[in-house]
Amino acid sequence: MATLNILTMATVASIALAGCGKLVGLNTPTTPLEQVHLQVTGDLASVQRRETVGQAPQLHVALVWGAQWLPEPFCVLPPESQAAAAVVAAGCPDSFRFVPDRAGADVVVQPGVPATIALVNLPAADVMVGDVTSRVAYASLIVYDDRNGNGTLDFHHPPRHHHHGEPADVEDAGAPGTRDIVYGASFISMTLPDQRVAYREGAFNAGVAFYPRNGCVLPPLPGFSILSAGGFPRPDFTQPNVLLAAAQGQLPAEDPTTCGVAKLDEAVVTIPLQSPDGLTQLACTVGDTAGTTFYREPPANSPDVTNRAWACVGFPHLPGDDAGVPNGQQLVVASAPTDACQSVTHYTLRGCDNDPGCAAPSWDVTATPPAWWAAFCPTTP
Amino acid sequence: MNTLDGQLVLALPAALATGMSTGVGAAFTRVATRGGMLAWGARASWSTATEYSLVDTIRNDDIRLRLCGQLQHAAGRGLFGLRVGVGGTLVYEGRTRGQGARAGLTGSALGSTTWAMLPAADIEAIVVLRIWNSWGMSITGGPTLHWINGGTRTGWSSGLGVTWQH
Prior knowledge:
The complex is a heterodimer. Chain A has a domain at 34-289. Chain A has helices at 2-16, 44-47, 73-76, 82-91, 240-247, 373-376, and strands spanning 34-41, 59-66, 100-108, 115-119, 129-131, 134-145, 181-185, 194-202, 223-229, 260-262, 268-272, 295-296, 310-313, 330-334, 344-348, 350-351, 363-364. By secondary structure, chain A is of the alpha+beta class. Chain A contains six helices and 17 strands. By secondary structure, chain B is mostly beta strands. Chain B has no helices and eight strands. Chain B has strands at residues 2-11, 21-31, 38-52, 56-75, 78-97, 111-132, 135-148, 151-165. An eight-stranded antiparallel beta barrel of chain B has the order 1-2-3-4-5-6-7-8. In chain B, a hairpin with a 2-residue loop joins β6 and β7 (135-148). The A-B interface holds A 1, 3-4, 7-8, 10-12, 14-15, 17-28, 30-31, 33, 120-122, 201, 222-223 and B 4, 15-18, 28, 30, 41-44, 51, 53-56, 58, 60, 65-67, 87-91, 93, 95, 97-99, 102-105, 109, 114-119, 148-149.
C-alpha cells in the first residue's frame, strides 16, 4: 500500500508541475558555426557560354574542400616531343590547380550583391591533411551555374581504367546540356592570386605541403580563417634543378606582400566571374591522388583518337636518372576536348596496372601486338 | 489481490518525432471490487532515446507517471485486462551541438538541458500469466497521448516483465 501511495503522490505532483519547460526536440534552429562573407563580381553576360545565352542562369557559390594530390609524372616532366607536348596540353590539367574533394555549403548568389555562406558543419577528418595534433583543410569558393537545378556542384571524374577492356568506371559527366558550368573561384591554382577558406586544428605543420604557401609567414588561424596569396610564378620544369626541387616539395615562394590571414568576419572573399573555358577542371576530381600512372593493355581494335592528341613516347623518368626505366614505348592518348575532365590514357604492350616494367607482367603482347599498334608506334617493340 | 510488476519498456519518445525510447518501469494495482473485475493503481517508468538532427544530438529521458484504472478478467492462470492511465510524463531533454566540442564551443552554444512535464493519458492491454506460485510474467502495450507545446502527440508504449501477485 505504501508503494501505491508513493506512486500516487508522484503522479499527482507531476500533473501539478505540468508545462514547466519548453522542449525543442529535433526542430532546433540551425545555428551556423561561422559565416563566410563573399561577393561575386563582374558581368555574367560577358563571359556566359554561347549555348547558354538566353537561359536564366542559376548562379550558386559552393564551398568546396580540396584534395591533396600529385600529378602523374608524364604530365610534369618535360615532354620528349611536340606530339607529347600536345598530349600534355590536351590531357593534363594544371599541376598546381585546386582539386575538389567534397562540396560543402552552397548559396544562391547574384553578381555585385554581398552574400554569406553559413558553415553549419566542420570539415570531415578525411578532407583534412596532417595528423590529429596538426591538421588543416582548405576550401575554394566556386561560382557555378546550377544547370540541373539540384543545388549542388556536381563533380565529374576522369575514366578509371583496368588493363583489360573498357574503362571500369566511365566518366560521370552527365549530359553536356545539363552540366554545371563553373564561372569563377576564389582559389583556382597556386600560380594565381587566391583567397581560400582554411580550417585548422592543433598546430600548423607546413611540412605536409598541402597547397603550400611558401613565403607566407603567418599560418592559418586556429579554427576557420581566410588566407590570401598572390600566387607563385609557374616553375619551369625544363630546368632539372627546378624539377628536382619541386619533386622534393620545394615550390616557388609567394610574394610576402600578397599574403594575408584574416578571421572570417574580417574578410570578404571576392570572386570575379570569368570565362568558363579554363575552369572546367574545378569540377573534376582526380582518379588517383598519389600521382600513380595506370597502364592498359592495348585493345584488339584501335582506340578512338578522333579529335584527340596522341603520341608514342618513352616512359617518364627524371633527367639523368635512367636506372630502372622500362624499355619500350607507350601510346598516350589525351581526352577529347568535349570530355568534362582532362585525362591521359596509357597503352603499353607489356606491363602491370601501375608498372610497365614489372617482373611478372599482367599482360605481354610484345610478340603479337595488335595490328593497329604499328600505325601509332612503328618503332616498337 | 495486489499485483506488482517490473517491466522492460519500449515506447515512442514522448517529445521526439522519431526513435525508440527504451527503459524500465514498475506498476502496482489493487483490486477494487469484490468480484475482482476492477482494479486501480499507479505506474511509473523511465526510458531514454537519443536522436540526431543535422546539427544536434538530442537525448530525451521520459519519466512516465500514471494513475491507473484497470478492467480485468481472470481465466485459469491468466489475467487479461485493459488499463487506462492518466498523469504526466516528465521529459528531460539534453541537446549537444554536433561537432561543438571540436569547434571549441562552450556553454549554451555547446549544449543545453530542459525539463518539461507533459500531461498524458494512455490505454494499455495487459496480459499476466502466473507461472510459479505468485510469480508470473506480463505483457502490456497500447496507445499513448501527450499534450506538448499546445498540441497533442500520439504514440505507443509497451512492456515485458515479471509479475508478483498476492
